[in-house]
Known about the structure:
The structure holds two protein chains of two kinds.
Chain A: H1 2-29, H2 33-41, H3 48-58, H4 74-77, H5 80-85, H6 102-137, H7 142-155, H8 159-173, H9 188-219, H10 222-229, H11 234-255, H12 266-272, H13 277-287, H14 290-318
Helix pairs in contact in A: 1-14, 2-3, 6-7, 6-9, 7-9, 8-9, 9-11, 10-11, 11-14, 12-13, 13-14
Chain B: E1 4-7, H1 10-31, H2 33-44, H3 46-64, E2 68-71, E3 85-86, H4 87-91, H5 93-97, E4 115-116, E5 123-124, H6 142-167, H7 169-174, H8 180-201, H9 216-252, H10 254-269, H11 272-289, H12 297-332, H13 335-342, H14 347-384, H15 395-403, H16 414-441
Antiparallel strand pairs in B: 1-2, 2-3, 4-5
Amino acid sequence: MLAYLIRRLFYALPILIGVNIITFALFFVVNTPDDMARMHLGAKRVTAEAIEKWKGERGYDKPLFWRSDATGADKLTDTIFFGKSVKMFALDFGRADDGRDIAREIRARMGPSLAVAVPVFVLGLFSAISFALLLVYFRATYLDFAGVVLCVAMMSISSLFYIIGGQWLVSKIWHLAPISGYAEGLSAARFVILPVLISLIAGIGSSARWYRTIFLEEYTRDYVRTARAKGLPERLVLFRHVLRNALIPILTGAVVLIPTLFMGSLLIEAFFGIPGLGSYTIDAINAQDFAVVRAMVFIGSALYIVGLLLTDISYTLVDPRIRLQ
Amino acid sequence: MLQIKFVLLWSDLLFFVLIAAVVVGGVWAGRVEHLRLAWRQVGQSRVGMATATVLIAFVLVALLDSLHYRERLPGDQENYAVEVRSALDATLTGLRTRAEKTYSAPLATHLFAKESLDTDLGRSFPRLKHGGAHLGDDLAAHDSDIAAKAVKGLGLGLLGTLVFGLVSLPLRRAAPHLAWNAQLLTVLVLCLLAGAVAVLAGDYHVLGTDKVGQDVLYLTLKSVRTAILIGTLTTLIMLPAAVFLGLLAGYAGGWIDDVIQYLYTTLNSIPGVLLIAASVLMMQVVIDTHPEWFATTAERADARFLALCAILGITSWTGLCRLLRGEVLKLRELEYVQAARALGVSSARILWRHVLPNVMHIVMIAIVMDFSGLVLAEAVLSYVGIGVDPNTISFGTMINTARMELARDPMVWWSLVAAFAFMFVLVLAANLFADVMRDAFDPRVVKL
């Protein structure tokens, strides 16, 4: 198991390096730092000094890969590629345009993101599985049909509609929850309820329908026929056999999402003013703060790769047929 | 005589290519036995026929909006207006030009906000310049006028359905087993709606007006093109690469397979929204620093739009590529491929003749399944600020501009509701149609 884990980590490394190179190419090769400076400084006629100053403040006034005028290791390390890309592996993301340390900002904003993302993940999984079970129990009846129609209709509605409509109805008309904002500690619950609820409603359509097909696929298996043939009531077939086996693909499929929960949700956090990583990203996009976006791309990819690793491990834990070598 | 110069934007060209490809693909599918059977299953499904009709109606609007031209300016020299218009703009000239001052509710005769008028001392709601202007001072006739016009429009719609039914009679005869009744019913609903709206739109703003007084109905109809194009062109742009790499990885194996797998795993591990955000930010810099590339603002917006499609495509081709690779891995070992190889058929020919036709159903299902997600994504991305150009009319930009108005009291709800309603109908039709397609084409679907 340990050997497998170590090998998998070594597989993950080239992918992370690939991500790093892609982001580097995107941010520094597609556009030269001069272009970015000109864009950022806005005006059409920017002086060369202003550009140099902008680049100097951000450490963009270095060669991309190779510094011929330096000595020793500085030839490689005093470059944009080393300073901006390689250092990310050491979780050193540099400073944002407002001068704050990005790494510290990220640590501070993880909490609020998780406060919304974790309840959404857990409750979402639970409610979608329950709803799918209900549909499957009444499969091939009008109830099932109506449920599927409801799912398709719900997934055809824009998530913006759920957010705007939910805010309007719950906060503005019923005055049940604050329209946006956030507080530390336990009082956060007051602010978190509405975003969680809206995320649940917005997501249940597609996931419940997807789980329903997984359950139905499981129903075609031989062991289900055997279970029925030996006279088990339908309820037991569903809960003891189908549910347990179908949970394997559902749960292992959800595991990959767990690390990315740290990233929060862009839309929800932006609409509800939650100071998490999602709204941090949105603000960075709107302010065209390239350093922050670059850092978020790197962290997002690293977390996703961790998620893939966890998925592999969870397969061995829940399914004894799979052995890792 | 109004002289015009046709303008072919890149997105128009690609859209026309796409429609031609769909027609050619349809003819090809009609010749292949198992595909013909699958299409017949789609045609026999009532949901399939009804949703296809709705989708075709949307595509027609988009097509009309893709025929672009520039008007010739009066004068001796051959000068053309900078504005690029489309055939849809020409059809809706009335809606486009009859702008009010600011917000007005659907079918209203007065502006939404009170203003101090010159004539009296108090503040009151000013009359609209165009909405209900034909009524004059006879405001009591407002409701009855609307009712009369609606009835007239419904009658026209009924007539249109009858004409359509008669014209399509030969088609019904030719393929009597298809679900034509569901199709005709959908046409009836669409015609009734279109008739009533068209007649009312002559004298009112059926869906109200927005902040700068533009007709919301006009804006929603213009948004249809953006939505349809983003849903289709994105897949079209990524399709060649995804199919080529997927087939190659599955068939060639070895180090080629490793490289392609590495490529899509790497791209796939960057969270989609973030990759899109980063790419769009960079694309904006490119477009902003090279203003000399674009002759008109329409071309600029179009370039940005296509770049967005390409970026969305790059982030979404990995799924299709992986599916194709897996399928080809299976096909490669089947007897007929082995036989072709034993007979000395070249690899390229095996892929083209024997493998590609047998994975086409995966490609088709992927195209229709992706469509609705992309339409929804456009709205979200435009809200986040990494979507289409702010000057491009789309559901996303409409929602974005209308969103702030919810805080007003009383609320300005009509732009939002109109955008969401149109989007809902389009996405629902696409989702339902995709389901019917998948049931018909995917051999793995569980049948109850």
